[in-house]
Amino acid sequence: MNQLRINGIYRHYKGDKYIVLDVAIHSETKEELVIYRALYGNNTLYARPKDMFLSEIAPEKLRPGLEQKYRFELQNIESVAH
Fold it and tell me: Element (H or E) spanning 75, and its range?
């Protein structure tokens, strides 16, 4: 099972890395949203439903050589140096 760790560094299955900042609650639907920041480029801030963030990669998106099982996977790096 995939896990969510605040301040954890996650690798997207396409290769980029992100840091999870927090979990927010959608004000109308009460859905949990993961708030995360890109660790590349302009360090864009993103929000994605928690279930989607922790989901397995859809079969149609799998490609040869891809070893990652989940859309985002926690890396062994615990924090980002500032």
Answer: none
